[in-house]
Amino acid sequence: MQLIAPGVAAGLFISYPLASEVPGISPSDALTYGLASAAALLAGLVGSYIPARRATRVNPVTALRCE
Predict the structure, then answer these.
(1) How far apart (Å, rounded) are the C-alpha atoms in residues 6 and 30?
(2) What tens digit of pLDDT does each residue of 10-26 get?
(3) Domain coordinates of the chain in residue numbers?
(4) Residue range 12-66, pLDDT digits in tens
């Protein structure tokens, strides 16, 4: 939660110079920010699914004995 405000501020700061590169999108377009946030969330979920799935198949006693 502490990274949301600085992340949005940095995104707004960076988006104004890049606004000329992407025609048709304003620098403070809420839909664009929402879609970018959803894409980042989806990438994080997909990227953590396989390791989490693999970790659930390990016997906890075996995992504790390895340490």
Answers:
(1) 16
(2) 888 888 887 778 777 77
(3) 4-66
(4) 888 888 777 877 777 777 887 788 888 888 998 899 998 999 888 888 888 788 6
Q: Copy the structure tokens of residue 45.
A: 């979920």
Single-letter amino acid code for the residue at 58 = V
Write the single-letter amino acid at 45: L
Contact 28, 15 (CB under 8 A): yes
* Region for 29 from its dihedrals, namely left if φ exceeds 0, alpha if ψ lies in -120 to 50, beta otherwise: beta
Amino acid, res. 51? P
Tokens 């396989």: give the residue. Answer: 50
CA–CA separation, 13 and 6 (whole Å): 10
Instruction: Tell me whether residue 65 is exposed, middle or buried, using C-beta atoms within 10 angstroms of its C-beta: 0 to 12, 13 to 18, 19 or more.
Output: exposed
How many whole angstroms separate alpha carbon 13 and alpha carbon 17? 8
